[in-house]
Every structure is written in structure tokens, then in C-alpha cells.
Write a structure and sequence with these properties.
Layout (H helix, E strand, L loop, with lengths): L2 E6 L5 H10 L3 E7 L3 H10 L4 E3 L3 H5 L5 E4 L6 H10 L3 E5 L6 H14 L3 E4 L6 H12 L5 E11 L8 H17 L5 E7 L9 E7 L5 E7 L1 E13 L3 E5 L7 E12 L4 E10 L8 H15 L7 H18 L6 E2 L3 H4 L1
Parallel strand pairs: 1-2, 1-4, 2-3, 4-5, 5-6, 7-10
Antiparallel strand pairs: 7-11, 8-9, 8-15, 9-10, 11-12, 12-13, 13-14
Helix pairs in contact: 1-8, 4-5, 5-9, 6-7, 7-9
Amino acid sequence: MTLRVGVIGAGYWGPNIVRNLSEAPGAEPVAVADLSEERLERLRKRFPAVRMTRDHHELLDDSKIDAICIATPVGTHRTIAEEAFAAGKHVFVEKPLAGTVADAEAIVRAAERAGKTLMVGHTFVYNPAVVRVKEILEAGGIGRIHYIDSQRVNLGLHQFDINVLWDLGPHDISITLYWLDEEPSWVQCMGACYVQPSIEDVVFLMIGFPSGAIAHAHLSWLAPSKLRTMTVIGSRKMVVYDDVQAVEKVKVYDHGVEKLSGDDLRRSYRAGDIHSPRIDVTEALQLEVRHFVECVRDGTKPRSGGEVGLRVVRVLEAGMRSLRSGGARVAYRPEAVRA
């Protein structure tokens, strides 16, 4: 069975989805919809066999299309997803799932009512390096996870409609939730607007978990160089994931504290070997598209399904509540405060 897919949105990311669908076994991009004739013309030159249209309803009304990929501005996700499910399509939505928890919940409910697959484009949880770290953590070799510290900074690209939390934050949040496999307890976020009024270009996000683990993310459009690092500190070992590195993206440090004695001020630290496991070089988006095809074909639950996407939006919305409250710690779920 070949999954026939229509893509809505041909801006920055849509063409990448079309390309990967054309390369993925068992998938075929058959149509693309976008409001811009200029963008469609560029795609038409690359994929002459794919039908182009400015009306996305043509894709929804086409009974030969099995699934819809939504790569449009986040504010349109709910309406288009609900239309797609009502038309009997499986749906892949680019991250974040929605701009509010209410809209994200509505999309999840629409998928459940339709009995169709809903997958959210959190591409990093398909990144081979991120998956390798997950395997290391699940093996228990680093011990109990104490905290995760991440940096996702560079100079630009400033957005005009969302702040840096909503722009870059979904990556670190989705990776953290994937690694820890638990929902947060609380969220705290501080930031500042230096280039544009009312749009934060730097934020410091903290997330607390029931296990006692804490995650911290430094997100910025205002930094001199591009940094993409995440460090996991365990009770026995430490892991560093550096996405900027061409090789050795993951390193496991046999470093830690062996003994502390306050009586005689003795300190014993361990600085053992550093190991860098081999990492597959397959493009994460290709692996993500293949996973979507497999989930639709087999009726299995996606790694980044609707509930996963909803949790990311919950963290983002909680982060905004904290930002607007001067950096106060807020509950991950607002109802927890009222209970």
C-alpha cells in the first residue's frame, strides 16, 4: 500500500516534507496547496508530477488522498486539522501542534473521533543522536537523572509574531519529555525583549518533574554563535549531545562525585573515560516521515502523537504564564493550582 499524501503549506518547511515524502518507501506526495503562486511555482519545477493548487479544500475533497501534512502558521493548525479529520484523512501537523492548549486538545479530540492517526512534527525525537541518548538513559548506565541543561542560541532569526520560547522552545521541550518520559510538575520562565518590544528574544526556561529532575533551557536569538547542546547529569555518569558537531554528537563522560566527607573536608571526584558511540547519519525528517507511514499502515501509536504534542504546548503555555507573571513558578496544569 502506498500512502498518498497532500501537503498544505509550501513555505519554509513544506518543501522539505514534500522532498522526504518523495524519497520515503511507501509514500507518495500527490498534491500541495499554498496561497502563494510564487511558492507553488518553485515547487512545481522541483516536483513536476505533484499537483499544485491555491485551495487546500481540493486536497481535503480528494478521496484518493489518504493523509494530510499541515505546514502552515500555527494559528491555522486547529481549523485545517479538524477539516482534514472530518474528511477522513490521517494528519501530520508541524510543531507546535497548536498555539493554545485548548486548540491542541481540540485537535487530539478530533483525531480520536475520526479514528485516524495524528502525528506532530517534533523532528528531533527522530534524530539518531537524540534516540541514542534515550537508549543510554533507558539502560540506566548514568544512574538517576539529576538535571538536564540545554542551550539553543544563535544570532537570529527574529520572528515577528512569536517569541523565542515558541520558536525554539518546542525542540528542547520535546527532547526533554522524550528522554525523561514523565510529565512536568511546574514550569518557570524569565526573559527579556531587547530588539523588538513585547517579543522576547532571550528566555531562560526551567521545568520541574515529579522524579526530582530539573530541566533548564537557554533560548536566544541574540547570541554571537550557534550553540545546540544538551547535557544530562546523572548520579553515575554524564551525557552531552551537541547537534552542531559533524561527528561525535554524543559523548558519555564517566565523571561524577565518589565521596564527600564534611568531617575532614575530603572530596573524591571521578574523571574517567569519555566514550562517543557511533551515530547513524540518516536525516531525521526522513525517519520521521517513514514513521508516519508505518503508523498509518500498521495502526500503531506515533512516537510524537497528539498527546505528546499536547504536552509540549502545555509547557509552552505555562512558560508564557510564568513570563507574564514576572518569572513566577507556575503549575504545569492550571487545575493543579485550583485543586
